[in-house]
Each structure stands twice: as C-alpha cells, then as structure tokens.
Amino acid sequence: MNIGIIGIGNIGSMLLETLQNKEHTFHIINRTRSKLKKYEKIGNIKICKSIKDVYKNSKYVFVSVKPQHIDEVFKEISELEEDGNYIISTAAGKEINEISEKSKKNNVVRIMPTVISKIGKGVTAIAFHETIVRDEKKEIIELLKPLGKVLELEEEKFDAFTILNSSGPAFVAFILESFIEGAINIGLHADTAKDIVLKTFEGSIRFLEKEEIDLSELKYRVSSPGGVTIKGLYELEQKGTKGAIMKAVYESYLKNKEL
Ligand SMILES: NC(=O)C1=CN([C@@H]2O[C@H](COP(=O)(O)OP(=O)(O)OC[C@H]3O[C@@H](n4cnc5c(N)ncnc54)[C@H](O)[C@@H]3O)[C@@H](O)[C@H]2O)C=CC1
Ligand SMILES: O=C(O)[C@@H]1CCC=N1
C-alpha cells in the first residue's frame, strides 16, 4: 500500500513508525527537513519534495500538521485531482465537511489518534465522509489496526473524545508527577518515587478491572476510620482538586470547540 504522511511531528512520526511494515511504501514530507533525516536510509520510506508528490503517489494521505497550518495544506490538495486517494486528517477540532470543502475532495476521513498508539495500545476514533462505503471503511480500519483499538465515532463526540483520549496522556503525566514530587517531599529519591508511583497506578487500574468494584469502594477499602488515607483525601476535597480537574477537562473541551 502507498501511504502518504504530510507533517512528521509527534503524530506523523508515531503513524510512520507504528504502521511501518514491508508491504507499505511511505511518501512523507515535513516543513522542517531535519526531522526527516533519520528516515533517509529506510528503503520503503520516500522523502518527497512537495505535497503534490505525496498526494499523487499515495492511496491514503495522512495530514498531521497543527490545526493552524492545515488550511495551506488543504489549499494545495484542492488544486490536485482526486484519483482514488483518501485524505486522513488527524487535526483536533477540524470537521469532515470543512476539510472536504477546503480540499475540494469527498474521500475524507477524520481520525483522533493518541501518542500512546506507539505501543499499539491506544484508541483511535474514526469518522468518514458520507460518500465512503462499507468496504472502503473496512480497508481503512484494517490499515489502522497496528495503532490498537479503532473506534467508529459520531463526529459530535470527537471533542470530548479528544480531551479524554488524546490530551489524556498529558493529564495523566501531570497527576503522576504530582505524586512523585509529593514522594520526594517526604524523603524518597526521585527514581524510587517514580517506580512506586507508576506501579501503584498500574496496580490500582488492574485491581479495579479484576475485582469489578466501584472507585468509591476502593477508596473505602483503603481508608481506615480516623486513619492516614482519609486525612489526605480530606485535604484534596478541601482544596477542590476534583473541581479543578473537571474544570481543566471543560476548558480543554471549549478550546477544542474553538479550533
Ligand atoms: N500531539 C498529540 O498527542 C495529538 C495531536 N493531534 C493532532 O495532530 C496534528 C499534529 O500534531 P503534532 O504531531 O503534535 O504536531 P507537530 O507540531 O509535532 O507536527 C506537525 C509537523 O507538521 C510540519 N508541517 C507544518 N506545516 C507543514 C506543511 N505545510 N507541509 C509539511 N509539513 C508541515 C511541522 O514542521 C511539524 O513537524 C495536530 O493537528 C493535532 O491537533 C491529535 C491527537 C493527539
Ligand atoms: O493539544 C493539542 O491541541 C493536541 C490535540 C489533542 C492532543 N494534542
């Protein structure tokens, strides 16, 4: 399969490296040429000089540039003839109808990926232009399988999905970091703290899945009456931590809707 990728940043490089497979030939381009250097000597990766070269040579063309740069890419594509190729946009907040209008193409697919897919464990949401039929959808979903789970989702749910799934890893990193720094403050070395915190989070998730219990049930199993855990939970409640996190999710959601 001939696959194009316009924009080899965080997501473009994740797509290139995760979908890498000897049966595919990749045609890639990036504005900052230095980011392409490491792919120069790989046989099935062709570095292109123009968006036209990428589009003309690829059946599936991922567009993974920032939302503020996407219009110029679609403008260039709009001047090219559609010949059985499909645009697959990864841009947050950009709807299929808008992409279709700007690129003057019908074969438009929208995905919402995550950097986590680099290890094949992420979830990728997907939505298709109304003219794309079942067999075409099946082939595209199959192409994306190395990314992990591929979830067909109504476009109106993309904004919420983006914040939870695609911004999500950054929120997780922030919360983990808070615990690690809390641990350093009570005398642990950073490496030890990181190891314990990661294992505690991972173990708690596995435990919740296996025991099939509610989150509050886990809180009450751990919190001894008048003990140490409830003291910390009380502090979090007094500081409005849950409200702050809910507000963070909401603000990200509003920002995504503005794009
Ligand atoms: N970073 C993430 O975790 C996620 C990002 N997204 C979306 O994916 C898209 C890409 O995000 P990132 O990879 O984080 O951005 P990035 O800034 O890391 O990568 C974008 C790349 O596109 C290149 N570029 C810009 N204009 C170009 C042009 N005209 N021709 C060729 N290359 C061009 C830039 O040089 C850059 O390397 C965005 O639209 C974003 O909303 C979606 C889900 C998750
Ligand atoms: O922060 C952003 O705008 C992009 C979209 C979702 C994750 N990263």
Question: Spatial order of the strands in the main sheet?
Answer: 3-2-1-4-5-6-7-8
Oligomeric state, counting identical vs distinct chains: single chain
Structural shape: elongated
Beta-strand share of residues: 5-15%
CATH superfamily of the largest domain: NAD(P)-binding Rossmann-like Domain
CATH architecture of the largest domain: 3-Layer(aba) Sandwich
Q: Give the CATH class of the largest domain.
A: Alpha Beta
How many strand elements?
8
CATH topological fold name of the largest domain:
Rossmann fold
How would a textbook summarize the main sheet? 8 strands, mixed
The averaged pLDDT comes out at: 97
Structural class, judged by helices and strands?
alpha/beta
Attached small molecules: 1,4-dihydronicotinamide adenine dinucleotide, (2S)-3,4-dihydro-2H-pyrrole-2-carboxylic acid
Query: If helices are DSSP runs of H or I spanning 4 or more residues, what is the number of helices?
Result: 11
Q: What percent of residues adopt helix (DSSP H or I)?
A: 40-55%
Distance between the termini: 32 Å
Topology order in helix (H) and strand (E) letters = EHEEHEHEHEEHEHHHHHH
Number of domains: 2
Return Rg in Å. Answer: 22 Å
Residue windows where pLDDT falls under 50 for at least 5 positions: none
